[in-house]
Design goal:
CATH topology: Aminopeptidase
Strand content: 25-35%
CATH architecture: 3-Layer(aba) Sandwich
Largest sheet: 7 strands, mixed
Helix content: 25-40%
Radius of gyration: 24 Å
CATH superfamily: Gcn5-related N-acetyltransferase (GNAT)
Strand order of the largest sheet: 1-4-5-6-7-9-8
Number of strands: 9
Structural class: alpha+beta
Number of helices: 4
Shape: globular
CATH class: Alpha Beta
Distance between the termini: 86 Å
Order of helices and strands: HEEEEEHEHEHEE
Length: 196
Amino acid sequence: FTSEMRLFIFGCLSSVALCRTARRGATMEQERPNEAEEGLTAADLEYRPWQRGDARYGRPFEPPDPDRLFVAADPKAASGYNVVGRVESELEFTDENNPKFAAAFPHAAIVHISYVWVHAAWRSKGVASTMLPKALEDIRSSLPDVVAVYLEVDPTDEAALRLYLRCNFTFFYHDGDDYDEEDATLLYQFRPRDVQ
């Protein structure tokens, strides 16, 4: 190869690399995962139990067994990025294995919400305050014998506390609770006329 041919080949290869990089960058820009589009609100999302194919960050969720999984899904999102919020919960029973609630709800079915999450791009858009009441409705309709739902929250997380208190959760204390606990327990009780 002559030096002119080497320069020509090198020039072609570098422009191919730049084109590939530019194309890849454009693709990434088009499929920005879970980004809230300008003008979209919590009302534009679907709130429902998990369905096969629901995914976050390009990874599908596994079937929620034994947990229940309730999601806020963006129907317009790129495939693999539709879940922008979720509530995970699990059915429990008040007995010797769960003494914290046994005195208040003897031999009852309760639900523990173990996780509430909203994608950072969707925070402060009303997603959590729309999703959580709908998740409670879903629990009520799918588990009619449940009398209450509880969760733990960091008492210094003011935004989370405001959300839960707005959704009619109340502080729950039982004998032996230390008021300076790391996590506060909040309880949502279904109305007695709602309990079947």
